[in-house]
Design brief:
Number of helices: 23
Structural class: alpha/beta
CATH architecture of the largest domain: 3-Layer(aba) Sandwich
Shape: globular
Helix content: 25-40%
Length: 571
Amino acid sequence: MPDISNPLIVQSDRTMLLQVDNEKFEDCRSQVSRFAELEKSPEHIHTYRITPLSLWNAASSKMSADEIIAALNEYSKYPVPKNIENEIKEQISRYGKVRLVREDDGSLYIASDEKPFLNEIAHHRNVQPYIEEVEDGRILVNKDYRGHIKQALIRIGYPVQDLAGYDEGVAYSFNLRPTTLSGRDFIMRDYQRQSVEVFHAGGSREGGSGVIVLPCGAGKTIVGIGVMQIVGAQTLILVTNTLSIRQWKNEILDKTTIPEEDIGEYSGEKKEIKPITIATYNIITHRKKKGGEFTHFNLFSANNWGLIVYDEVHLLPAPVFRMTSELQAKRRLGLTATLVREDGLEEDVFSLIGPKKYDVPWKELEKQSWIANAKCIEIRVDMDEELRMKYSLSDDREKYRLASENPGKLDVIERVLEEHGRHNVLIIGQYLNQLEEISKHFDFPIITGKTPLLERERLYSAFRNGEITCLIVSRVANFSIDLPDASVAIQVSGTFGSRQEEAQRLGRVLRPKEDQNMAFFYSVVSRDTTEERFGQNRQLFLTEQGYEYQIYTFEQFKEMAGRARETILQK
């Protein structure tokens, strides 16, 4: 029941204000984040918004309207507005109200128990191009446009539940190893096994397509392997870069009975098609000229795949969405640490890859020690007078670059290294000139997009083995890089407030540690600049996951003088 001591205010415009300094904040946040999107997260009040898509994702993960309304009533200071209750009931009821079903003869139909919905759909101009015939109680649609019809329906407010089933693909069975090749015992963690089972749904038509959301370091690759094993079919895996291909391949060899000769690499360097084929998004979207045909689109039909895995699905290029719209008869698994897309195509992920099937809050896995306990700190450093003058006369893009490359950040890096020691430290940035200057100043090795693949692998291996204790990396290290021993990350520049980038960079230090299981994530920004403003947007992601963001000026940080680590931990 509403209680003035509660932390939540639910407003009639679908926004919710959550009071941070409240003993029920943590419990309320964990509930609200299941069905609402975080919009702002300053120090004292966080703003969430209930949207149709956030409610449809909640419905797809079996959350009912009654559960959502009960959670709002439990934590709200004031009575929940009736229009919000009605909106929740309406949107939750829409998921599954319209179904896509397939008859034994292969015919594809839109079906619903409510004829007015079917009538409205049949006469909508966005849907009509895909309709072949309107029958009593169902609509016959062109089976070649299964993905297109799902996109059209979600855009007019009807998230279709796809129950049309899947092609089984060519069978391919293998087992998980009880002991890895490196000699360690191997068993899937409870949440990994649960996510596999929820996705597969016993092989029924309710399973087989969707997105699993897990933190970096929580073993999304293991989940992918588990799904491959339970589906038991030849699989195409799409990843962000060539290094990710090698890491997926190493994990598969280490933890399954799949022989190396059955794993193919399809990239700029090799064009192998095997029962298990791993390809990059870049090669899939390659064209000889702008506007031309996609050179390697035939990969999707090269084998009768039973499963397609989309790693880092929040980065899926738009052309791959178009390709995926024609692959709806294949089982599709999306893996990601965040559903946030900077291009706003979350609806396409929902309709073409599938709805969110499983999500574990980062802080929950942290409490169970499956990922490191992370502390997030922002240090704000001043510009000198000459740079400030140049900054004031520049356009917005140049201002951001000048703020990012502020030479004063070298002193901050030096102080952070003094506080933590020069061991297991990653320095991450966006601008190559800045990173090369840091490399020269500290004599640390650097990896950029220009670094040859073999040299990258050598440096990453040396870092993992402790031969290199501090490594500088550009944006190439944002994705799918396995650096389990990194315990301190220093972010010196980033991509215009990208929340997805923040997820990946934090993930570089989240893999569990053997000792105190503690990680530190520093962001160094120029004070009173556009960089500071963009940084507030990146903080949204951390707040979504339950992390507090400690902010210090460089002067305040220096005053800690050898006590920074302890002070941060105490807070």
